[in-house]
UniProtKB/TrEMBL annotation:
Residues 175-195 are annotated as: Disordered. SMART domains: FCD, HTH_GNTR. It holds the Pfam family GntR. This is HTH-type transcriptional repressor GlaR. One of its GO terms (molecular function) is DNA binding. Residues 9-76 form the HTH gntR-type domain. It comes from Achromobacter anxifer. Keywords: DNA-binding, Transcription, Transcription regulation. PANTHER family: HTH-TYPE TRANSCRIPTIONAL REPRESSOR GLAR, TRANSCRIPTIONAL REGULATOR, GNTR FAMILY.
Length: 235
């Protein structure tokens, strides 16, 4: 039974990853009805692993399961983004504090390497369509490396989920701006320097200054959320 069920679990996991990626990047927009027949064709899959994949995504908040009506992509709202951000700050700052207290030399090397890659990549895509996909991947890897020295697998897992949730909003904001050709909201005061924010985070973490690192991380996440909220329509 175990050997027979392994391919099923593997297929369901792969489908869940593919569907989640399409939801995050906006290829499956908020509110989209997820019809099994259409999804079978889209992902070249059978119905049984698809239903399992959708059920898994429902537990992580990307998909909503409705009685007698099947599944749909979860909606988005400013209230939800603010809630996700504050929860992420609480979880990720605690994980960062643990990483700083317990992280090994390997953690320091991993973090420094992730920052080096991020700092060498352009922020925007060459065609001006939004953030570079390669930069986005490096950015996620840097934030993962920040907390990877933590001794709590649960904190890391929750932080990764919340990071995916906020990435979804970021992609939606970029798509909205591209569709409306709306310029970013004018900045007040000192212009934001994301590269410098990441550098300061790296330096505080490597200096084992947990208070400063946690404060910088919280500020970094809140600033990003405010920019996203200014660029997406209300729901």
């Amino acid at each position: 039974m175990t050997s027979a069920s392994t391919p099923f679990r593997t297929a369901a996991s792969a489908l869940a990853n593919d569907i989640r990626a399409d939801i995050i990047t906006g290829h499956l927009p908020p509110g989209t009805r997820l019809r099994i027949k259409d999804l079978c064709e889209r992902y070249d899959s059978g119905a049984i692993p698809l239903r399992e994949a959708l059920s898994r995504l429902a537990t992580s908040g990307f998909v909503v399961a409705e009685d007698q009506r099947g599944f749909r992509v979860a909606d988005v709202s400013a209230e939800e983004l603010l809630d996700i951000t504050e929860t992420r700050i609480h979880i990720e700052c605690e994980a960062l504090r643990r990483a700083i207290a317990r992280g090994s030399l390997d953690w320091e090397e991993r973090l420094a390497g992730a920052h080096y890659r991020l700092s060498r990549l352009p922020l925007h895509a060459p065609d001006g369509s939004g953030l570079s996909a390669e930069w986005e991947q490096a950015h996620s890897a840097f934030h993962s490396a920040l907390i990877s020295g933590s001794d709590s697998k649960s904190l890391i897992a929750i932080a990764e989920l919340l990071r995916d949730q906020t990435a979804r909003y970021r992609y939606l904001s970029v798509q909205h701006n591209a569709g409306t050709r709306r310029a970013p909201a004018p900045k007040k005061g000192k212009e934001r320097n994301v590269t410098d924010e990441h550098r300061q985070l790296l330096e505080a973490a490597l200096a084992r200054d947990a208070d400063t690192a946690a404060e910088l991380l919280a500020q970094h996440l809140r600033q990003t959320t405010q920019l996203v909220l200014a660029q997406i329509p209300s729901h």
